[in-house]
Q: What sequence folds into this?
């Protein structure tokens, strides 16, 4: 069943104050929230604590990518923040992902969910080939999904156009998180591979990330309400899994 907790609102703001204002306004819908790299770099752990006082546990979309030792230690540090999940680049390799997964077990309470980013939604087939990737895009997503699952990650991040690829590669228990979600009529912006929320859910997504379609709308609560209604989602507050 699709619930409001299936939707992550991206708090992509340049400062903590507008992010807190947005979260305070939209939290009553029962959605979850995602904190990206820019705002984390600006507000750090104190900002995470302030936001989580309003939002509940956040998805930290930091896309870690470094040698295994560094990523493991960074993940251990992030475990202390009480977040819901953390993104890492699957292209960092199996050893890096395993280091993060192992470190994620060390926090108090629920383990931090490690979600592996497959192929960024800003990339298309020519851009991927320019990076030296010889597999077709969908095959690359499937390959990185299997790598992430074998390393113990809780799920993968992929565009809604490849949600079905992730689901087929990893099975029903693996979380599929899809950014690049745009309601019909909303511009794609800087993302190359997008789909509507309904298309993403139909393709097998467990969680949708929505940003400017809601946060930059003239009336964000009305935009979020329309999105939830279009999904047939309940707006009751739901605790993280």
A:
């Amino acid at each position: 069943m699709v619930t409001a907790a299936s939707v992550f609102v991206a708090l992509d703001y340049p400062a903590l104050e507008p992010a807190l204002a947005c979260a305070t306004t939209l939290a009553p819908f029962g959605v979850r929230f995602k904190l990206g790299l820019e705002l984390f770099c600006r507000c750090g752990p104190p900002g995470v604590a302030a936001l989580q006082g309003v939002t509940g546990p956040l998805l930290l979309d930091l896309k870690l990518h470094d040698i295994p030792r560094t990523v493991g230690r960074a993940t251990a540090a992030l475990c202390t923040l009480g977040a819901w999940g953390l993104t890492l680049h699957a292209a960092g390799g199996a050893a890096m992902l395993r280091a993060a997964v192992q470190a994620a077990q060390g926090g108090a309470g629920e383990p931090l969910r490690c979600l592996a980013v497959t192929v960024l939604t800003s990339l298309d087939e020519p851009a991927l080939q320019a990076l030296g990737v010889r597999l077709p895009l969908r095959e690359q997503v499937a390959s990185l999904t299997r790598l992430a699952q074998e390393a113990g990650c809780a799920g993968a991040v992929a565009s809604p156009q490849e949600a079905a690829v992730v689901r087929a590669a990893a099975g029903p228990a693996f979380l599929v998180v899809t950014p690049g979600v745009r309601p019909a009529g909303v511009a794609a912006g800087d993302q190359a591979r997008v789909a509507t929320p309904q298309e993403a859910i139909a393709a097998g997504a467990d969680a949708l990330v929505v940003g400017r379609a809601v946060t930059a709308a003239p009336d964000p609560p009305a935009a979020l309400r329309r999105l939830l209604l279009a999904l047939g989602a309940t707006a009751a507050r739901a605790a993280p899994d």
Summary: The domain at 4-231 is CATH 3.20.20.70 (TIM Barrel). The chain has ten helices and eight strands. The chain has one domain: 4-231. Strands lie at 7-10, 32-36, 59-64, 85-89, 113-117, 155-157, 175-178, 207-210.
